Amino acid sequence: MSRNVQQEFVNMQSWNLFRERFKSQTTEASYWSDIREFCCFCGKKFEEADSADVQHYYEFMERKIEKGKIAPLTVTKKFRELHSFSQFLSEEENRENSKEDFFYPYLKNMEKERGLAKSVPVEDMDALLKAASEDMMAYTVLTLMYRAGLSSTEVVGINGEEDFVLYGEDAYLLIPGRKEPCYIPEDAWNILTEYMQQREMHASFFYNRSGRRLNIMYISRMMKRYCQKAGIKNYSAEAVRNCCAFNLFAYGASSRQVSEQMGRTQQQIRRYQGVNYKGNLRRQADDLVKIRIEKP
Fold first, then answer.
1. I need a surface site. Which of 87, 103, 198, 206 has the fewest CB within 10 A?
2. What is the SS3 assignment for 44?
3. Which of 141, 140, 106, 146 is nearest to 125 (CA)?
4. Is 105 helix (H, G, I), strand (E, B) or coil?
């Protein structure tokens, strides 16, 4: 691929229109990375790629799955994003010579996620964050589940700011029952600190209108409310939490590191990996994940 293709692998005017739908950097970074990877593979700009290029890319990914270098769910995620962008280009108003979507036929036949942990597609997660952006508490709860892997029980169990500790520049949450503190990524910590500046002083960190501690049913109703507002299907809090494990595995974290972050055993955490996937870690897990959530 020429240097020019690497620098301009998509029509930037179309990309800027496409990226306007995203609230946070989470989805944008994921899409940008996968589109760039595809274009670098086939040596063409995205709009110049044809069915043969998509077929070769699919076969390349299948070989990586067979060798245990990538998870089937990660390939599904890549094709979902490539299909979404291709579909956008095809449907763009007043667009001449619209591009055919060559990704969808492969996406239909890819391995289903049955028997594996449920998660939320990045585009739906972004829509959910956008829907909750005017509710700082809900936005913070979603961020902690999505980026730090906290469960609903762990979220409502936070007593106050004293449960958070700083080691150098890194933030952690002390959770009863866990052997190690839970690492809080920098973007999540930035959102947390903003919430701390706005919250009222009550007996628990998160509270309802009466100032009482939240419960699991509150989180469930919150999920339903903002999923409806976002126009997406109803996802559970667990599905949001599972995204943390999927994201870590997608960027190469090991079972041990994911289990430490999620507070689960390695045997429990393997269900997030997909069939025949082997983690191959060469850097710290928190350095691997390139997604970030911005403040609402």
1. 198
2. coil
3. 146
4. helix
| E strand map for the chain | 164-167, 170-173, 182-184
Report the largest interatomic distance among the alpha carbons of the chain, rounded to a whole angstrom: 62
Q: Which of 241, 288, 296 is nearest to 268 (CA)?
A: 241
Long-range Cβ pairs for the range 96-103 (8 Å, 24+): 99/47, 100/51, 102/49, 102/50, 102/51, 102/53, 102/54, 103/54, 103/79
> Helices (H) and strands (E) in the chain — how many of each?
15, 3
* Dist CA 77 CA 206 (whole Å): 33
Sheet containing strand 182-184, strands side by side: 164-167, 170-173, 182-184
The DSSP annotation for 194-226 comes to HHHHH----SSSSB-TTSPBP-HHHHHHHHHHH
206-220 CB burial, b ≥16 within 10 A, e <16:
bbeeeeebbeeebbe
DSSP H or E stretch at residue 249 = helix 237-250
Bridge partners (DSSP) of residue 207 are: 213
Q: Which long-range contacts (CB under 8 A, 24 or more apart) does 173-181 make?
A: 173/148, 175/150, 175/263, 177/263, 178/263, 180/260
pLDDT tens for the chain, residues 1 to 296: 333 444 578 888 888 888 887 767 777 888 888 999 999 998 888 888 888 899 899 889 888 877 777 777 778 888 888 988 888 887 765 555 556 788 888 876 675 544 345 778 778 888 899 999 999 999 999 998 888 888 888 899 999 888 888 887 788 888 887 777 788 888 889 999 999 999 889 888 999 988 999 998 999 999 999 999 999 989 988 888 887 777 665 555 555 655 666 664 444 334 444 422 233 222 243 443 445 566 76
Q: How far is CA 286 from the centre of its chain?
A: 14
CA distance 124 to 285: 24
